[in-house]
Amino acid sequence: MNLEDVNAVKQLLSAPQKIVVVPHKNPDGDAIGSTLALWHYLKKKGHEATIIAPNDFPKFLKWMPKNEEILIFEKQSIQAKKYIEEASVIFTLDFNHLGRIGQMEPLLEASQAIFVMIDHHQAPSGYAQIMYSDVTMSSTCEMVYNFMESLNDVEKIDTDMANCLYTGIMTDTGSFKFSSTTSRTHKVVADLIDKGADNTAIHNRVFDTNSPSRLHLLGCALGNMKILEAYSTAYITLSQAELDKYNFKKGDTEGFVNYGLTLEGIQFAVIFIENAEEGIIKISFRSQGSFSVNEFARKYFDGGGHTNAAGGKSEQSLQETTAYFETVLENYKDQLTA
Q1: What are this entry's molecular-function GO terms (predicted)?
Q2: Which residue among 54, 237, 282, 317 has its CA within the 20 to 30 Å range from the CA of 15?
Q3: What's the pLDDT score for residue 1?
């Protein structure tokens, strides 16, 4: 954060505020970890704080300290609307465009609260009066740690906050293997462990609580994998019928897309997941090296994200979407096989 923004936040938080903290729709470990850690911090500072998530989050995150305090807008909209209308400050974490919060978007657009954005995705929109935006950061959780450090409040990080922040950093760095993981990231994580983060327990709770149906779904996904050697690309498809067959629960497909990148010679991995309720194909893109899936997703699939990790969607059928994907791949053959 620059000095001007630090001073603005200090002034903003110098008196008790009614604060709402918002993650993006379909929140992941970084979104939930960062919002919970910030919520704990704001409560310690004497503010009235409430987390409102657009929709529910995966079961493997529901051990996190005070996760039961999170309001789910889809289930508790009347109560959530009241908090948003009364808020004097709204923090938005792990997203940078109000289009990422689904049905909550018009409520936040109408709010007269002061907005503070903390996010590491590319191309932020300008809705926030105070923006801490840094695409070089490993995760929003690392940014929340930096945010507290900028306010000279790192000593306020307790065991609960440390566990939340560690979870988000761990999940958003692919267990510290992605290129966004820096020496600074490891220093932050080391301090979080010193402050009480139980790294072994966190890994177990996130990665070692699979249901048999999830592993069967993974087997189905891998069985559907198509490898396009000419483009150094692999993609997975999952239809709604397949999701239903294996009793799909929110979060069950987390990480599936990364399996493509474990194949020798593959630079670009994609998963296409049919969502009949929303009438779309949800898409996750991953890459290695300099190939920008953020630019690819923005250009062809109404999405975006980071250079090596992005999301998108299609309103075509699953078959039409993958056919279109294979067609546009031809434009990138030289980049992907260089």
Answers
A1: nucleic acid binding
A2: 54
A3: 87
How is the chain split into domains, by residue range?
3-207, 212-337
Is the per-residue pLDDT at 168 higher than 90? yes
Q: In one letter, which amino acid is 13? A: L
Quick one: pLDDT band at residue 338, thresholds 50, 70, 90?
Answer: confident
* H/E stretch holding 186: helix 183-194
**pTM beyond cutoff 0.90:** yes
DSSP string, 234-251: EEEEE-HHHHHHTT--TT
What is the topology classification, in CATH, of domain 3-207?
A: inorganic pyrophosphatase (n-terminal core) (3.90.1640)
Q: How far apart are CA 301 and CA 319, in angstroms?
A: 15
**DSSP SS3 for 174:** coil
Strand partners, 309: 286
Q: Beta strand 268-275 with 280-287: parallel, antiparallel or unpaired?
A: antiparallel
Q: What Rg value do the Cα atoms of the chain yield, rounded?
A: 20
Separation of alpha carbons 1 and 21, rounded Å: 19
Query: Of the candidates 247, 244, 324, which has an alpha carbon nearest to the alpha carbon of residue 283?
Result: 324
Third-level CATH fold of 212-337 = Diaminopimelate Epimerase; Chain A, domain 1 (3.10.310)
Of 153, 193, 149, 152, nearest to 170 by C-alpha is: 193
Tell me whether strands 89-93 and 71-72 are parallel, antiparallel or unpaired.
unpaired
The DSSP code for 17 is -
- Residue 102 one-letter amino acid: G
